[in-house]
Design a protein that fits this description.
Oligomer: single chain
Shape: globular
Number of domains: 1
Number of helices: 4
Helix content: 25-40%
Distance between the termini: 28 Å
Strand order of the largest sheet: 2-3-1-4-7-6-5
Number of strands: 7
CATH architecture: Roll
CATH superfamily: 2,3-Dihydroxybiphenyl 1,2-Dioxygenase, domain 1
């Protein structure tokens, strides 16, 4: 039995397959949670499960993205955006930034993407959740440095997040703690 859906990813073609899977799985999480597709932030994360896979994908990412002098940068700008065409109601999305995450034994998911809401709508959503309103498949992300709501489903091996557009732009340039990179 294979433990992870795509890992180890060992080719650019397999990486693109994983990205397409993450895209559709995360949009499913979004519509299941909110009843609609929220605007997509344009960044996608691929989660590694093996050290060799991480080394390979880090090298591939270096070919596909712009170089950075920030050794702890999380998202890297793609030379050529990855465009996923609309399908079965899921809107076309253009991914401009790629994140390759180190293996984490607590995260078996294939990857994640971010959605965003206007600041006022996000504040209302978060406050309602803080006030005890339950939203099936959503929880406030527990890291205080990232103001986000996580969308999840134990039957879907991807994660999605919603925050404000300002926050999604911030994570594209911010460094990530070394234990999560």
């Amino acid at each position: 039995m294979k433990l992870y859906r795509f890992s180890p990813i060992d080719s650019q073609e397999r990486l693109i397959e994983a990205i397409e899977y993450i895209h559709f799985a995360c949009h499913k999480l979004c519509v299941d949670t909110f009843g609609e597709y929220l605007p997509n932030a344009g960044n996608i994360g691929v989660f590694c499960h093996y050290e060799d896979e991480f080394s390979y994908l880090k090298g591939l990412r270096e070919q596909l993205t712009q170089a950075s002098d920030n050794p702890e940068q999380k998202y890297f700008k793609l030379h050529q955006p990855i465009i996923i065409s609309a399908k079965d109601g899921v809107p076309e999305t253009i991914y401009t930034h790629l994140y390759i995450r180190k293996p984490d034994s607590y995260r078996a998911q294939v990857g994640d993407i971010d959605f965003y809401l206007a600041q006022e709508k996000y504040n209302e959503l978060k406050q309602s959740m803080l006030n005890g309103e339950e939203l099936k498949g959503a929880r406030i992300f527990p890291r205080s440095d990232l103001d986000m709501i996580e969308m999840y489903n134990p039957d879907v091996d991807a994660l999605a997040y919603v925050s404000t557009n300002a926050m999604t732009e911030k994570v594209k340039v911010a460094s990530v703690p070394t234990n999560l990179s």
